[in-house]
Amino acid sequence: MRRPTIHKYLGISGTKGLSACLAGTENPESMTVQIDEIPGLHVIPAGHMPPYPSEMLASDAMPQFLQHWREEFATS
């Protein structure tokens, strides 16, 4: 989240992403981007660089989002 670049390599928008989810301004479902060129690959861009990225990653919201995505993308 300090120097995000994955969105540039994949040609997707990097304006919204994980930082907005952790800040509570965006829904995690709306942040997941499917990469058409690579079947099965979904990406969550970092979004805007927050002033304190380590604190955001250590927030109470992060485990909740991880569990949500774990359930959403679990393979059977």
Keywords:
globular; mainly alpha; single chain; two-stranded antiparallel sheet; 2 strands; 76 residues
Walk me through what this model shows.
The chain has one domain. It contains five helices and two strands, in the order αααββαα. The chain has helices at 6-10, 18-23, 28-31, 53-57, 61-72; strands at 33-34, 42-43. The chain is mainly alpha-helical and 76 residues long. The protein is 42% helix and 5% strand.
What's the helical proportion of residues?
A: 40-55%
Gyration radius over CA:
12 Å
Overall pLDDT metric:
88
Helix/strand class: mainly alpha
The number of distinct structural domains comes to: 1
Quaternary status: single chain
Q: Output the strand order for the largest sheet.
A: 1-2
Q: Uncertain runs with pLDDT below 50, 5 residues or more?
A: none
Number of helices: 5
Question: Which descriptor suits the 3D outline?
Answer: globular
**Strand runs, count:** 2
Question: What is the helix/strand order?
Answer: HHHEEHH
What proportion of the residues form beta strands (DSSP E)? 5-15%
Distance between the termini: 31 Å
Biggest sheet character: 2 strands, antiparallel
